[in-house]
Each structure stands twice: as C-alpha cells, then as structure tokens.
Design brief:
156 residues; alpha+beta; 33% strand
Length: 156
Amino acid sequence: MAGKKRTFASGDVATNRQASFRYHLIDKWECGMVLTGTEVKSLRDGKAQIKDGYAAVREGEVWLHNVHIPPYPPATTGNHEPERPRKLLLKRSEIEKLVGSTREKGLTLVPTRIYFSGPRAKVEVALGRGKDLHDKRVSIREREMKREMDRAIRGR
C-alpha cells in the first residue's frame, strides 16, 4: 500500500487529514489567497502540503504560514519561495470575528484544505481547539470501531 496515491475530493489540491485528529474544529471559513503565477501553476499540478500550516492575524490581516507549495520546475528564474507567508482574503467582519476568537486561550486557525473554486485558489480555514491526549485516544477508538463495523458489513 506504500505506492498507493491518496485521492481527494474533486477540485481539492491538498487536505489536512491531521487537523480533525489534532483539534476540535469549531467553525470554518472559505478564504481566497494572494498567490504568484508559479504558485498557481504548482497548485494546478496538485502539489501542496498543509499538514503543519497555521493562520495568524497580524495588523488586521490574516496570514497563512508553514504551507509548502513547491517551486514550479519549468519556471527557472521567476520562481517563488516554497514556504513564504501568504495573505488570506476575508471580509473585514470575518477578520474581526477571527481576532476575537483567536484571543481566547487554546484556539488557533488551521488550514483544512486547499482547492480551486472555478479559476480561483481557495483555502478552508477552521477555528480549532487543541485536543488532549485523552481526546485523541477516544478518536482512535471510535475510528477503529467504525472500521471494524464496516469490515463486518462487507464480510456478509
């Protein structure tokens, strides 16, 4: 199974499958991203990694950090930095809600997926509260019970 490629939902470039395991996801927002041309081409190739990414509010703007979009190979001179901070596009009222929410202790903004909506690249950002080790064990137990039930149903 090591050679098997993961499949995403249609239009998805990258998903953060660890987000729901590491955090209790409270609310989600769809954001636009300010990208360069080579970043868009690299995303169209389906290459991005958002596992360690997070978003932060600075000076009234939301920025996406630690999201790796690899350089576009055919572009030799005008390529981009793979892990540069990227500005997210949200309405002012949404940014104000995020500022109030992220000031609460233990809440953070986590990117859950990057996808294309028409010609535009979007990122889904979720407000999450970190899980304790006990909560992670419960998640693992529930996932394994669901897997066993599915196997039993398929076996019949």
